[in-house]
Amino acid sequence: MAHEAVLRKTVPVGGKNDSYCPNSVMLLPDRPITFGRIISPDVSVRLTSKTAPLMISRRHATVSVSAGKWTIVDHESLNGVFINRNRIQPSIPHLLEPGDRVVFGVGVNSNTPEFEYVFEHIARGRKRCADSSLLSNKDSSVKQRKIFRESGGYVMVPFGTDHPAVHEAISVAEEKIQKLKASLEEKEKCHADVVLQLEKTEKELQTKLLDQKATLEKEKHELEGALKTLFAEKLMEKEEQLNQELKSQKESLIEEKKLVEMQLQEELKKQLEEKDKQLENQLTQQKEALEQVIAEKEARQNMLHIELENYKASQARMQDLEANERKMESTLQELRQIVESKNKELLKQQEETKRVEEVARKTVIEQMEDEFSCIICQDLFINSTTLPCAHSFCEYCLMSWLQKKNNCPICRQPIVGRPVRSLVLDNAIAKMVESMDEETKTRRQTVTQEREELKRAASTAMPGSREHPITLNDAEGQQGESNTVTQAMVQNTMRHMRPAREPRGRQAQEHRPAVHQRNNYGNQRYYENRYHGNHGSNGGGGAGYRYSGSDYERQPYQHNYMHGLPGTYYPGYGHCHLCGMRGHWAPGCPLSH
Questions:
Q1: N or C: which end of the chain has fewer CB within 10 A?
Q2: Model pTM?
Q3: Which of 73, 106, 121 is the last residue of a domain?
Q4: pLDDT tens column, 494-525
């Protein structure tokens, strides 16, 4: 709980010419004290300066208790509040300590401030203790009272007794009452004389005030006439200057607009990338120029506002200047609209360029995928290998094919010579994969790693070196181990094998799910028939080849055979690349319809 405090004036008021302010202000914790210039319920203490009437604001500052401590708040006053010669920030409570010097306003002409106070706490007086003899006789049944003697001491007299001290005290009190009444009458007479004197001086001051007002009105009218004439001349000159500046600015903006339009027309004939760069540079330059013009306009507008504040007395000319400001704002709005339109054009051109680049990139990727795809696995070449007939396949796919046949899967020509790795195709495919999405890159990397693992598994499953790959029709002693390795190869290959190429066009998009399912089923049958079909029998149909490094050994094996759909063409050789069976081609595959 905060103690009571007081603000004591450092230089007390002594004469008529001093400021109207109290020498000390009592501060109570239960209510805030507001200092100000006006007479209002919101202002508790009124401060009026004789030298500068506007030194104190209407609501200057408030002193109150916050969290058990005395604080002062400046209500954004004109001349501020100073504590120990430091001005406090407005609207922020500042803590007061005993001995702080609080100044409302500032000193005039380097003089001492008028309203300088010192903040002090008021110590509470201790209560007087009762006499020990009275406390001991507190429970006695005899009632007593105190009688004050002339000598200055107190006498305890019981009630209901006729004591001479009582009569003596009563007579003394009556004499004092008579003296006080006489002094009161004299003071009332003096007060009446003072009131009459004040009324007389007030009337004299009113007459003087009326005379001063009349002279001031005359001077005011004369000054207003002079200011109006001077204001009119200056405003006419400024209007002419502003009109000339606006005309020159409009002409320069029109010329700049024509130049920009000509440049844009010439740049439309160039390539998209050059056009984007040039447009960005030109638009940024135009934007900077327009922003500079807007800044100049705003600076000019601020200057006009400052000049208008110095001539507030002329209301008619103020209207003319406001009309000019509206014109300038309309021109600024037009310039902003031009900048916005240029920005929109730039965004549209950038979006169009990105869209064209994306379409071109997708087209190139699709064409490259069509050209660099293996016909066996229907995926991009992995370790591309080229036959003497100039057809290329994946290394793993070709090795699997050569274990059954010794002819090209495309042209069916017998293979003479050794297959050759094609580094050019591998490098081209690697560059093409770099421009694809992350999902395609991850899937291709996974398939490549698994094929390498399958190759290593195939090389370790069979005795010998890498020149003797796994054969699907070895002896019975090695048949179980070979089949296990082959089944793992087929399962891993089928898990990551990409579906067949999806057809393009609106009609193909409508039937995409069925084709996708059919191709997956066909590829699965193709690999199952290739790796798991009749490994050890020579019961029928055709012969195959396996690759042993130096030459191709012809070994017989049996193919599954299935007739195609009625009416479809089958020349009698080859197999279906969807299901892997002989007896039909892909258009007549009964499993895909």
A1: N
A2: 0.27
A3: 121
A4: 444 333 333 333 333 333 333 333 344 444 44
